[in-house]
Amino acid sequence: METYMSQAGASGPNRSQARLWRFDNANALYYALVDTLKTEVAKALDGGRNPVVALPTGNTMLPLYKLITDAQEDLRTDTWTCINLDEYYPLTSSNRGSSFATYLNQHFYSKLKKPVHLQEQINGQAPDAAAECERVENKIKELGGIDIALLGLGTNGHIAFNEPGSEFDSRTRLIKLHPDTLMANFRGREPIENAIKTNKYVSEAVVIGDKRKFPVVLIVPNWDQLERYAKIKQLSWTTRSELLTLPVIRTKMEKEVLGQLHDLARLEFFVLFRQPQSLGH
Question: Which of 99, 139, 137 shows the shortest CA–CA distance to 119?
Fold first, then answer.
């Protein structure tokens, strides 16, 4: 079934018509996308230019990247100029593994027998975010625009990190992401838990409600380190449960935990500190 809708739900002479296809299942969609890619790549090459392709990330893209790499000769991926659709900022050693550049290398670039013609990335480690956005925009203009953009809808309707409320003609820019978007794109709790557990004051960390707006982090302290700190501060306590109730200790642990998350993402958490036997209950 094929219907039409105008872009952004608007009408008028400056709005082009977009075709909408409906499929019975996801596999039918993925195979149709591969066929469409073949057609659009051939058009670009017949026009004397290397196709410029904007590549996204996400779990829903994994089957498509598998099909693309399986059909890489037919799709002429070695002629593609690829641009990462978006990237986290700032990237540091603690969150580099969750970057979009890492994802695309793992699921696409590393699977190709021949490298793409040109690989252009948004630099999440650039010292000046605004300057990097401008550089990317200029690069897209230099390439003559984007021929093919693979896109998906986020859980709140965002497209390419254009959160609800973004202007229709938005360009490359730094944007604050909604917590739902961040949680979905970190693909679960593991990256957050691992980041927290690198702190010397933390023994275990478990994220609960990672699909909700305000997740909860259960923390089991590293008691040796925490008790050593309490002695330095000349605090008095009789049990570990009592130690956790002391304002100085709670402030210290919150600072340590949230400090681990600062470079990972702009997320809001409720942080709960528990003894080991309470973990997960």
Answer: 139
